[in-house]
Amino acid sequence: MKELILELIEKGKYSEARNKLIDMNEVDIAQLLEELDKQKLLIIFRILPKEIAAGVFSYISYELQGYIIESITDKEIKNIIDELFFDDTIDFLEEMPSNIVKRVLKTTDEDTRKLINQFLKYPEDSAGSIMTIEYVDLKKEMTVEQALEHIKETGVDKETIDTCYVLDSNRILEGVVTIRKLILSNGSTLVKDIMTSDPIYINTHDDHEEIAALFKKYDFISMPVVDNERRLVGIVTIDDVVDIIDQENTEDFQKMAAMHPSDEEYLKTNVLALAKQRITWLLILMISATFTGNIITKYNEVLQSVVVLASFIPMLMDTGGNSGSQSSTLIIRGLALGEIRTSDILKVILKEIQVSFIVGITLSALNFLRIYFLKKIDLYISLTVCITLFFTIIIAKIIGGVLPILAKKLKVDPAIMASPLITTIVDATALIIYFSVATRLLHI
Amino acid sequence: MKELILELIEKGKYSEARNKLIDMNEVDIAQLLEELDKQKLLIIFRILPKEIAAGVFSYISYELQGYIIESITDKEIKNIIDELFFDDTIDFLEEMPSNIVKRVLKTTDEDTRKLINQFLKYPEDSAGSIMTIEYVDLKKEMTVEQALEHIKETGVDKETIDTCYVLDSNRILEGVVTIRKLILSNGSTLVKDIMTSDPIYINTHDDHEEIAALFKKYDFISMPVVDNERRLVGIVTIDDVVDIIDQENTEDFQKMAAMHPSDEEYLKTNVLALAKQRITWLLILMISATFTGNIITKYNEVLQSVVVLASFIPMLMDTGGNSGSQSSTLIIRGLALGEIRTSDILKVILKEIQVSFIVGITLSALNFLRIYFLKKIDLYISLTVCITLFFTIIIAKIIGGVLPILAKKLKVDPAIMASPLITTIVDATALIIYFSVATRLLHI
């Protein structure tokens, strides 16, 4: 199918290509357009029916959106903006340079312009930034028949009609009713008798994390967004929430690998931005690692007198770091999904102590077998290594379990307390234990 | 509200409590029941209207589900199973011990029992394991009016009526039509004229990752699942997909922290299972870290003659490890979201070389300032440390960028190539560079 259309376009048979295209899903049309050269892209885009063109427009990359807007007439821009859902308009304008934003705003009427400017001002992480205004509003005195008639008249431009919002004359949210309930009810029933009063809602300033948590908890498809007077200002739909969930996870992955979070795609981010994203944390961790170096300097005599001790340092540091990050990852993830609360701190500590006992004894025993029996290392040195390993694992797991929870208590993002930071802390701890045990056991 | 209901239950005013409860969202009722002692829980659960009871049942923990089933009559079990959505029944049965499964199956009729057994057999990671059978099916010759009438008659038991599925007499999927299109169309229009033919569908054996990718790509709310003959066997709804996305992410977080993935909640997992999840990888990494130790042993003379060199080892190893995991995290995430493909490998290498140049020069320069000028370390030793740091960062970032892509090419999960494994590889590399530079520059 795709090859056929590309061939038709190649041959200049545009209207034939168009007829094949309009049967496809808008997402797939957008993907196909991305593969064309810019001139052909423009030709095809302009001959698409305008509702489809707007849908396709919302799915192509920001770069091509900018190119299209720069290449078409004001009239055509107006057509697209009229057909686009409001949240897609805002998404797109947020990414455009100011000259394009100005040009787009010029084509809209004053009310829309005002609304766009208002929406562009919502903080990036708030409900305001992802909500849309194409919802169905009903009055509670309507009958089901009137409500369905109203939906039939106004529904074509709405992003979703699955849930309808019942408002009073001041646009204050009084209830919600699903299209399913309307269809399954008798025509003469009043909306107020089948609506859910006291619906669960979002405030314009709620952040993305809270919104995602509400959608997950209640399995909603859409949710109303209200201002401080409980007036309905928009709705958030599940497709945007899915994007949020991905973004929040990407941020956590990045923070946990000691980077400033960024929601730009890797391949589309320039080299300088990538470098900047990474340098600060590397620097902080590099400097903290010198403390570990200082410990080695301090116990240099120990290393000089029992040379073989140095060769176990990487193993002790790595195992400590890995043990700690296992624990911190589980706790950070549990906190993010709401499965662990800060009040669970004692349960976590208890669990980590038990787990680290099992892990510590197993690894130390295996390690003892390996270095004492296989590598024939001196008994006391073998014991020094294994005792250190055991205590390092225990301390690493407790630190890994506790730090994310403490961070959350102090309103710091727990994701910061991940592998790199834990590793640095545990490294130093491991060495201090190592040299303390060594000096005692080996009488150095 | 919650306190009031708990008080009413405390005082034994059950029917009053019930009247308050049934106005609440089922998720919130479930949460409230979880806080009651088991006897009270059972009393309240039994006096809930049966549709609400089934909804609440699907939201409470598996432990309490098991307890309730064990405590109620066969008749009551049948009522719950009749009202439960099929996917919730399967979810619940999957977690129950076999005696409970048997008891539940005994209460169902033969057809349901057959179907349950068939669904329980689908692989855990397949579409079959999350689909449900409560969908609306239409015929393409129906008029919109007939279709809406049909929905009105059968819709009350369906999980969603937002999208309806058009089937031929052999239940082969011919198209889909949204409730929105039906409502906005003229009553005499035929379904076949407004349906989307060639709808995008899932196969029963598609895995969760592919399903999530399709939902994200097309912003669907539900998707049809067909067998190899394209017969409709069920539908998947977005709420289950959101759960999948969370699960897939949790798995990636766990793999990236060197653990066997598990989808059990941390606080609900027992200590032995947690220890088992962690030991294997720690052991593998512990043994690989001994190679790094061997390098230290081999170059022991170098360390003996220039004692201060040892104190920079932790800093070099940590910075190398962190640089590598930054890169691997970005690439693993990009691969998971479909933003990076294996064919992008050269682009990634080129980008990582450029980024690592900037990062390497910055960190090495700052480090040189610190150790040569501030700590007054010998010029050649300072140079040795900074040159090693520079090359370690470059190699770490290339390894971190390339390994996840190679893993994907070899059909291994890229998430394995994360922080812990990269650290182990980079540690050894850093030390080899360090000692090679040192022997040359310091003429040892």
Task: Estimate nothing, just give the exact number of structural domains of chain A.
Answer: 3
Query: What is the strand tally of chain A?
Result: 7
Secondary-structure element sequence of chain A?
A: HHHHHHHHHHEHEEHHEEHEEHHHHHHH
Assembly category: homodimer
Tally the helices of chain A: what do you get? 21
Major sheet description of chain A: 4 strands, mixed
Summed over residues and divided by their number, the pLDDT of chain A gives a mean of 91
**What CATH architecture of the largest domain in chain A would you give?**
Orthogonal Bundle
Largest interface: A-B, 107 and 107 residues
How would the global form of chain A be characterised?
elongated
Helix content of chain A: 55-70%
Here the CATH topology of the largest domain in chain A equals Tetracycline Repressor, domain 2
Radius of gyration of chain A: 30 Å
Q: Order of strands across the biggest sheet of chain A?
A: 1-2-3-4
In CATH's first tier, which class of the largest domain in chain A applies? Answer: Mainly Alpha
Structural class of chain A: alpha/beta
CATH homolog superfamily of the largest domain in chain A: SLC41 divalent cation transporters, integral membrane domain
- Strand proportion of chain A: 5-15%
Question: What separation lies between the terminal Cα atoms of chain A?
Answer: 78 Å
Low-confidence stretches of chain A: none
